[in-house]
Amino acid sequence: MPGILITGSTGQVGGELVRLFRSQNPSLEVHAPDRSQLDLRDPASIRDVVRTLLPQWIINPAAYTAVDRAESDQEDAFAVNAEAPRILGEEAAVIGAPVLHFSTDYVFAGDAERPYEETDLAKPLGVYGLSKLAGERNLAASGAAHLIFRTSWVYGATGKNFLRTILRVARQQPQMRIVADQHGAPTAARDLAQMTATIVAQLEETAGAGDLAEAIRSIQGIYNATNSGDTTWFGFAEEALRLRRAAEPCISFAELIPIPTAEYPTPARRPASSRLSCVKLSRTFVIQMRPWQTALGEVLKEIS
Ligand SMILES: NC(=O)C1=CN([C@@H]2O[C@H](COP(=O)(O)OP(=O)(O)OC[C@H]3O[C@@H](n4cnc5c(N)ncnc54)[C@H](OP(=O)(O)O)[C@@H]3O)[C@@H](O)[C@H]2O)C=CC1
Ligand SMILES: Cc1cn([C@H]2C[C@H](O)[C@@H](COP(=O)(O)OP(=O)(O)O[C@H]3O[C@@H](C)C(=O)[C@@H](O)[C@H]3O)O2)c(=O)[nH]c1=O
Ligand SMILES: [Mg+2]
Questions:
Q1: Would you give per-residue pLDDT tens digits along the chain (304 residues)?
Q2: What's the chain's Rg over C-alpha atoms?
Q3: What does this protein do (predicted)?
């Protein structure tokens, strides 16, 4: 039965997308194959799944997201982040299904003094960013109607993310050293899913009985999509612990110590400023993303 194909459903954004689409419209077929049913490192597996399911939409939040590990695992990072979007795009083009894809602020070098716009020059500092940039370009060249959402610093109540690391370690250690000179926008996975569902509904409405892929082509391309406002990793951790302390006054949490990036060496370099301007998104789709603090407060209520 036709419907939506969502990759990466065990991940943060994929999980939220599956939950949201299933709850919004129980009669919609939501196909959410896991890695055992759809291995994105394997082009034959991708082609097989798309040709069998013939979805009306393909949403691809799956990715190789281990930023540091990617430095020594280029092959897998590029297979999942660069080649899979190409193959998905090629198959989507054949069946006329639009592809909604996710990318990252880490495509930028991070030396800009203002928020990056979609047309700014991308110049990744590491393998993860390079592989994601290649994925954007491969999808764009595939012939599929597509939207690429560049987002940043994704977190949720479950999964592997900075917020959950901070909350865990802050109960175990007296002090935590957190970089305070990398700037960006924390973005809730659920807000990205909500945004995606809103856009899908708008586009279906616009297309009406006409061709969905054709309706998308005139606006296809890259869209920055983050919660609004910005902070540093230190500021993000500080706000999370401030809210936690208010909710759990009897528990003692680590003291946070702001440090420069140079004092937190990692295999992959990260951008100093990867703030993204979301003006294009809000103009095109009439979407206003919430402030990151509001989203954080909501997500924290779900974490015990
Ligand atoms: N996390 C972040 O901070 C940011 C993420 N993004 C982008 O947003 C999107 C969503 O990220 P997020 O939800 O956080 O990612 P997660 O790391 O939470 O989830 C990644 C998903 O991809 C799946 N996956 C990875 N490799 C394969 C494979 N070979 N075959 C099949 N599935 C695979 C994982 O499956 P499994 O569980 O089996 O490993 C998992 O379901 C991605 O495109 C990411 O690049 C952009 C900016 C920030
Ligand atoms: C855990 C920890 C991290 N840090 C620093 C390291 C790094 O500079 C920054 C963030 O660390 P993390 O490794 O959690 O986050 P990182 O893996 O860099 O997160 C990135 O993931 C990919 C997928 C993206 O697309 C990006 O938008 C971004 O969210 O915080 C500290 O300073 N102290 C700490 O205790
Ligand atoms: Mg990480």
A1: 569 999 999 999 999 999 999 999 888 899 999 999 999 999 999 999 999 999 999 999 999 999 999 999 999 999 999 999 999 999 999 999 999 999 999 999 999 999 999 999 999 999 999 999 999 999 999 999 999 999 999 999 999 999 999 999 999 999 999 999 999 999 999 999 999 999 999 999 999 888 899 999 999 999 999 999 999 999 999 999 999 999 888 888 999 999 999 999 999 999 999 999 999 999 999 899 999 999 999 999 999 8
A2: 19
A3: Catalyzes the reduction of dTDP-6-deoxy-L-lyxo-4-hexulose to yield dTDP-L-rhamnose.
Q: What is the pTM of this model?
A: 0.97
Which residue puts its alpha carbon closest to atom 19 of ligand 1? 11
CB 248, CB 86: distance < 8 Å: no
Judge if the beta carbon of residue 176 lies within 6 A of ligand 2: yes
Element (H, E) at 203: helix 189-207
Select 4-159+187-228+275-290's CATH number: 3.40.50.720, 3.40.50.300, 3.30.365.10, 3.30.428.10. 3.40.50.720
Distances (CA, A) of 44 to 16, 50, 89, 101, 102: 27, 10, 14, 20, 22
Catalytic residue flag (residue 128): yes
Exactly one of 106, 128, 155, 223 is catalytic; which is it? 128
Three-class DSSP category at 202: helix
